[in-house]
Design brief:
Elements lengths: L4 H4 L2 H36 L9 H9 L4 H51 L1 H6 L3 H43 L1 H49 L1 H6 L3 H51 L2 H33 L2 H6 L22 E9 L9 E9 L3 E6 L5 H8 L7 E6 L2 E2 L5 H6 L1 E4 L8 E2 H5 L10 H10 L3 H5 L8 E2 L8 H14 L4 E5 L7 H17 L4 E5 L3 H4 L4 E5 L1
Parallel strand pairs: 3-10, 3-11, 6-9, 9-10
Antiparallel strand pairs: 1-2, 1-4, 4-5, 7-8
Helix pairs in contact: 2-4, 2-6, 2-10, 4-6, 6-7, 6-10, 7-9, 7-10, 9-10, 15-17
């Protein structure tokens, strides 16, 4: 078993795995009963008179008091059929427990990885490839439970069945048992030696190729306009075809290797049967015929078990790469965060005191020993050259980055980890590119609230303040009109106004605008600035902090801070 495999399984599922192990054992036992049930039918087939006068079948016959050979045969066959049916129904019920465990674990792991990535924060998300993160959450977790855990359960169940059958063969006739072992062991050993490294490498290679494919697809759709205008689709398509060719080549090799268990097991079974045929030709007695029958029944069940074990083992080897991905789950950081509507009662000032910040992958500070005091109701503009750290400063104010040193003090109290959520509830934020979720306009304005909890009176109020009313009146379903993914059916100005309305819907005390109009044309920028100015004039207790390059955007600020 792979090192670290057990560490991936959370504590609660480790305890439940004991029950799963028990169901696997019971299923193996029931499958053994199914094999054993075939033996009385086989004995009757070989000797309708009930085998030897003192044999087990004759003892059963006398106990039941059945004189007729036909009646005895019908009763034994009927009982065997009933046992097989009950066995299969019981196996299905037991498998349901194992199935529920597997897919419950899939749900847990997928959510845990999703939460882990989210909790790593903005810097991690911005510097990661979203296509790879999405594939890990959606696909890798499913591959682990269906392509690693399920085959592992198959190996355990079929392995127990093999042990039970071989042990019974040893008790019944050691020669038959030895012959069965002579067939099984070389097949398994040869398969292991030939394929153990090959399949593992194929799995790693395909995982890397699937990652590359996901990146190409995501970049193609995200950069559609640039790809189309730049005539780059041919290059992207060529990269896609190359990756697909490599994936198909690997899949063909894996499909060929997947056929080997059947080839090995059928060859071994035929060799065993040939040995019995030769022995029967030389010795030719009823005992050899019975041994042949027992061997045939045993191997008919053993060979599929061996094949299932080998196939499952190759599947596990192929999907070992999933373990490295799932080791990323940070179980110590998965506690459910209790999100509340509680806000900091901001009444006086915000003080940034000796703030410094450095990214983990950087050798120098982005911000060094920066201090600033902002009074409640003040309108402060921040400007500076690109890359100077304006957005980083905003992300610190938003609580998305933690300063390397220094502190943020609100009304004389230093913000700590426990205050961040309340602080963020007090802030409205409009970025240069407002995030638009697929849903209605009302859902986007009341972002974070379920449809049932939307306050439509407040929606209508902020729509008017953000100068959205005229636009919404032109829509067929008004505020319930659906917006496409990322708001592609909205203009830049409409997106920004929705962002402002969203910030105002929170009834925030502080409004942060990060280059909110820099990507707009002059006329649209002027109308957005007018809406912001009107907002600041009508709400003199609203604190506004904005980043902008253009002087026209900063003209209504009380102070302008230049970062150098």
């Amino acid at each position: 078993m792979e090192r670290g495999f057990w560490d991936i399984i959370p504590q609660s599922y480790r305890r439940r795995s004991i029950g799963v192990a028990l169901t696997i054992f019971l299923r193996a036992l029931l499958n053994f009963v199914g094999v054993a049930t075939l033996l009385p039918v086989l004995i009757l087939l070989l000797n309708p008179k009930g085998a030897q006068p003192n044999g087990l079948m004759e003892t059963i016959r006398q106990t039941l008091g059945i004189g007729s050979d036909i009646n005895f045969t019908i009763i034994i066959c009927g009982l065997a059929l009933c046992v097989i049916l009950l066995k299969n129904l019981s196996v299905i019920r037991l498998y349901a427990f194992e199935r529920d465990y597997i897919f419950s674990l899939y749900r847990h792991l997928s959510k845990a990885l999703y939460t882990t990535y989210y909790r790593r924060g903005l810097h991690f998300i911005k510097h990661s490839n979203s296509a790879i993160l999405t594939r890990n959450i959606n696909s890798v977790c499913l591959i682990f439970v269906s392509g690693y855990l399920k085959p592992l359960a198959t190996i355990l169940g079929e392995g127990l069945l093999l042990i039970l059958v071989v042990a019974t063969l040893v008790w019944f006739n050691p020669i038959v048992a030895l012959l069965a072992i002579a067939v099984i062991l070389p097949i398994g050993a040869l398969f292991y030696l030939l394929l153990r490294r090959n399949i593992n490498n194929l799995g790693k290679q395909e995982n890397e190729l699937q990652r590359r494919k996901s990146k190409i697809v995501a970049e193609t759709f995200r950069g559609y306009a640039d790809i189309e205008i730049g005539g780059a689709y041919e290059l992207m398509s060529k990269r896609f075809d190359e990756v697909m060719s490599d994936i198909i080549s690997l899949r063909k090799r894996h499909a060929t290797l997947a056929m080997l268990p059947q080839m090995f097991t059928e060859t071994g079974l035929m060799l065993g049967l040939i040995l019995f045929v030769v022995a029967n030709l030389i010795i030719h007695n009823k005992e050899i015929a019975l041994m042949f029958g027992v061997f045939a029944v045993a191997t008919i069940r053993l060979i599929p078990s061996l094949r299932a074990i080998m196939t499952s083992w190759s599947t596990i080897r192929f999907n070992r790469f999933t373990i490295d991905t799932l080791k990323e789950i940070e179980y110590n950081n998965l506690e459910e965060v209790e999100y509340s509507d509680k806000k900091i009662d901001f009444s006086d000032s915000i003080v940034l005191r000796n703030i410094s910040f450095k990214f983990d992958d950087s050798d120098s500070n982005t911000i060094t020993d920066f201090s600033l005091s902002i009074r409640k109701g003040e309108h402060v503009g921040i400007r500076g050259a690109s890359g100077i750290g304006k957005t980083t400063l905003f992300n610190i104010l938003l609580g998305l980055y933690r300063p390397t040193s220094g502190e943020i003090v609100v009304d004389g109290k230093s913000l700590n980890e426990t205050d961040i959520r309340s602080w963020q509830n007090s802030i409205g934020y409009v970025s240069q590119s407002v995030f638009i979720a697929e849903g209605s306009i009302a859902e986007n304005i009341a972002f974070g609230h379920s449809v049932d909890n939307i306050d439509y009176n407040r929606i209508n109020k902020v729509i008017e303040i953000a100068d959205l009313k005229q636009f919404i009146e032109t829509l067929p379903e008004g505020i319930n009109t659906r917006i496409s993914e990322q708001g592609e059916n909205l203009s830049g100005g409409q997106r920004q106004r929705i962002g402002i309305a969203r910030a105002l819907y929170k009834n925030c005390d502080i409004l942060l605008l990060d280059e909110a109009t820099s990507s707009l044309d002059g006329k649209t920028e002027e109308s957005i600035n007018t809406a912001i100015e009107r907002l600041s004039n009508t709400n003199n207790v609203l604190t506004i902090i904005l980043i902008a390059h253009r002087e026209t955007t900063l003209q209504y600020c009380d102070r302008i801070i230049t970062l150098e």
